[in-house]
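Exercise 7. Given the components listed, write out the predicted structure of the assembled complex. Treat all entries as one system.
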Amino acid sequence: MVHCFKFSYEGNTRYFIWDIESGSLHSVDCFAYLCALNRYGNISDKEKAEFDKIPVSEKKEIEEEFEILESQGVLNCPVSENILPTKSGGEIKALCLHICHDCNMRCAYCFAKDGTYNTPKDYMTFEVGKAAIDFLIEKSGKRKHLEADYFGGEPLLNFDTVKKITEYAKEKCKNAGKEINFTLTTNCLNLNEENARYLNNEMENVILSIDGRKEVHNRVRKTANGKDAFDLILNNAINFRKIRGNKKYYVRGTFTALNTDFTEDVKFLSDVGFDQISMEPVVLDENNALAIKKDDLPKILKEYEKLAQEYIERRKGEKWFNFFHFMIDLKGGPCLKKRLTGCGAGSEYIAVTPTGEIYPCHQFAGDKDFYMGNVLTKQFNTDIQKKFANITVLCKETCKNCFAKYYCSGGCSANAYHFNKDLYKPYETACEMMKKRLELSLAIYAIENNL
Amino acid sequence: MKHINTLVKNCLNKSENSGCGECQSSCQSACKTSCTVGNQSCVNKDEKVNIKVKKAD
Ligand code: SF4
Ligand code: SF4
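Answer.
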């Protein structure tokens, strides 16, 4: 299977052929692009008319080049039989700790219902956190690298507990011969100097949530008492960035149907000094005014192209930055198992709520159908775990012929479930954006490496 | 070749299926770490994508 795509940069159109099964990228001229579309299917009427105009001698040359590459296994490589991920032994390596189901912001698009997950405003106690860490260590088997991320609600509202759990976990893991890395996601409201210093010392990664331009942020993100949040958070975030140096962090924003010109927000974040940036499409039911609807997609896909062009420009000079969805590792990417299984929700990754309940991930928290047990009682439903461990990109009908399959790994199970009531049926709107971002990542890779 | 320039060959090394599980978990949801397998590296290899390496040009 091959996928053909193009990308315009500095007035030139670049043509590419991506061989899905071998993971080979070819840069081609327009004639070869048209010939590939014709040879491997999916040529439109307009392109067919163009194709018909190519001189026969050129077509013959191109066909011969295709045949050479096919014989080398780097073009139209067949789907390998018997590629199955190695069986999971049921180990768990990562936790999402819902440190509190409460928040000091009221963002219009919050999936967790103002951070509460429709539960009373619970705060995790140290006892629950400790039990969660013990549970993780016990279930991690031979895994050496463990992870926990503090999530909410807003984790800084229960910061003393964060500190106690972190201290406990580091000590306990050390004694167990393991290493644990922490991540914390914050809306930055309480990210004062003292908190920032602590996070800088103790966290492997810190995620700062800012949506971009002031008016974009304030339109959807208010404080709990209804104030605009932007002016209250930006300096905290910038200060943290300064303290952070070269350690891992990133700013993440959410774009909605109201700012499909999100390149401006990414540029804003870059202009104020952030160099690790992520901008995510909001995920909401289509009847919500902020939701990204199918009709918005053409505009959004175009916007990603615009962002890619800006990205290449900025990365040439002082305003260099990373955009998470344009990063691609074509040399040292993960092994096949990882590519086939993706996030590992419910199998090697679990979420623990303030009361100790276990769910496949934060997006399933509170859904009784996905209740897996409790860290306090150590009761754990391995049937649900096995069900999630069996989800691979190869079992999903829609993914079988998708050119992004080894990079996307089949999308987010929670989105699939919430939109299509089926863990195996990916959420199409997200697929379209994922595919576009993969094309752009490949094109950027080629351009940046002068290929 | 006149029309085709192969930029990357066989970057999906399917024979490498160790599945040692030591790599970072990769939630791709919008509210989270937005990590996909695409932007991830293998802990056993050198290439890293999310490290700040300014290109010397
Ligand atoms: S983009 Fe969609 S269809 Fe393609 S692999 Fe991902 S989830 Fe599957
Ligand atoms: S199911 Fe979705 S939200 Fe849950 S961990 Fe996986 S990618 Fe993230």
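Discussion: Chain A touches chain B through 97 residues (CB under 8 Å). Residues 428-448 of chain A form the longest helix (21 residues).
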